[in-house]
Amino acid sequence: MKKMILGVGVVLMGLLLMVGLVSAEIPHLINFQGRLTDSSGVPVPDGTPIKFSIYNVPGPGGNPLWSEIHPSDSDSNGIFNVLLGSTTALNLPFDEAYWLEIEVDGEVLADRQQITSVGYAFSADRVKGSNIFSSSGNVGIGTTSPTEKLQVAGKVKAQGFITGDITFQKDNEKLWRMFEDEDGLYLESLKTGKVYRFLLQEVENK
Fold first, then answer.
1. Is the pLDDT confidence value at 193 over 70?
2. Do residue 14 and residue 45 come from a single domain?
3. Given 76, 95, 128, which residue is the final one in a domain?
4. Do 74 and 118 lie in a common domain?
5. How far apart, in Å, are the Cα atoms of 49 and each of 17, 34, 81, 103, 193?
6. Under DSSP, is residue 90 helix (H, G, I), strand (E, B) or coil?
7. What is the mean pLDDT of residues 158-182?
């Protein structure tokens, strides 16, 4: 018997994900709702295995990046609801396009469905409370191709800095390096290699 799934939705977990950003670990779950019937429109029996698989190609072909099986548990109209990722950890990075394939009792149903923005909220894992972090890569503000850990295309306003050596550059050419040791503050010319020491005068602490 040919089975069909109608009325797919992946909205609920999107709301939960956004709420979870502030204070909790984000759940790697996607809510999936559908209607499962045979070719005559009669709901299939409960317990029928439904296999969900995620690919990075629209199909056909490709290898599944993730999959899990849920037994159908529907109401009298065949409406069912499952949480994808509840039996097999859904640890995909969601940094590229993904498609969901549904297989019922060994039969693949229709075309793969592209997963849209809700799943991609997983990238908000990089936000915990008021902290934003990344374990790799560079951060750009005003630029889409940062070459340093933090690159700002524009002015920066700050109350203070905690820093090590400071390198000055113009037109992408590094010209000077400022550094210090316990004896003083120095400026090195990166073109000549000469080092200059600042003459410091003690003043009243303000």
1. yes
2. yes
3. 128
4. yes
5. 28, 14, 13, 8, 72
6. coil
7. 89
Task: Calculate mean pLDDT across residues 133-156.
Answer: 85
The set of residues, in sequence order, having a beta carbon less than 8 Å from that of 135 and lying 6+ positions away, is none
Instruction: Please identify, among 77, 102, 128, the residue that sits at the C-terminal boundary of a domain.
Output: 128
Q: Which residue spans within 87-159 are E strands per DSSP? A: 99-104, 107-108, 113-114, 127-128, 131-132, 139-141, 150-152
- pLDDT of amino acid 6: 45
pLDDT at 86: 92
| Residue 81 sits in the same domain as residue 167 | no
pLDDT per residue over 96-126, tens digit each?
A: 889 999 998 888 888 898 887 655 565 555 6
Residue 22 clears pLDDT 50, i.e. is over it: no
Spatial distance between the Cα atoms of 165 and 181, rounded to a whole number of angstroms: 10
Domain residues for 37?
Answer: 4-128
Q: What is the pLDDT of residue 25?
A: 55
Q: Are residues 109 and 149 in the same domain?
A: no
d(CA 157, CA 154): 10
Number of domains the chain contains: 2
Residue with tokens 């991609």: 120
